[in-house]
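Record type: monomer structure entry
Structure origin: computed from sequence
Chain ID: A
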Amino acid sequence: MSYQLTIEPLGQTLDVEDGQTILDAALRAGIYLPHACCHGLCGTCKIQVLDGEIDHGEASSFALMEYEREEGKALACCAMLESDVVIEAEVDEEPDARNLLVQDYGGTVTRIENLTPTIKGVWIELDAPIEFQAGQYINLKIPGEHGARAFSIASSPARAHEIELNVRHVPGGRGTGWVHEQLKAGERVQLAGPYGRFFVRRSAHDKEGLGYLFLAGGSGLSSPCSMVLELLESGCDKPITLINGARSREELYHHDEFTRLAAEHPNFTYVAALSSEPEGSGWSGARGFVHDAAKAHFGNDFRGHKAYLCGPPLMIEACITTLMQGRLFERDIYTEKFISAADAQQVRSPLFHRV
């Protein structure tokens, strides 16, 4: 059984299968609705139901209050149709967004490497190439009743047949635990994508002559890695700076590759910062947190750039504060709001709402 969903103000109607969420149906039709956690916890995907009946699914009572339900509001990531439905949603117009349709893919794991003691690199050869924008992510299906987990694509869009994922082991996490402890090279996997609104705004950079600033921490390097690779491969001549943070040298990965790229491309600068590296270890690079390294490198003046932030919530908070103190403001700062069920309760900046 299927119902029809009409999305206003677009006036576009699409078929929604039984048990399919509003968000999934929209993304598979190439219609981007704002979203973040996909667990019904953050409220980013809130919509207004104008007509028809829906099932709220597992929407949190904190993200969607009882009075909001009575007013006809719903969370697109959880809501399912029980009749033909008309909704009103905030549909962003992004000149650089390609609005690619979400599709299902099968693939074979070609190799798995220990990038750090807590992060594995997973390479998957797909049965059919995936078209995506650098910075986007996929949902990897976890065997059993554990659903799917979201992982950013670390490889360049030019490598459409084989994608790289960087997976940090989360203590107690069933999805990351499966990747780290059970998944082997040669196994078949299923995934869906591309998802997300984290990508470079090249038209704005070209129009305003702005440089690219990427701030990353831990496995948050995945998206900036893909974005930097694509920019360099495309012959971008604007200044590109990547500041990558880790606790120690053994937690710092792809360091040699970025060092090589910086030597090959005069417009690309790479700065690695270690926050807990022991003194006397031989590390000659920057020490401290990502925002400290950024402030030191730019002299606390970030004007002339657009910044792209990806990493742990507390890192992003500190970077936003530093950037704004250094005369870079909200319209020029983008973050990857990548919120898992475990992360949903962590602090997020009340000043910042970009996807």
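Annotation 1: The first strand starts at residue 2 and ends at 8.
Annotation 2: Residues 343-355 have pLDDT under 50 and may be disordered.
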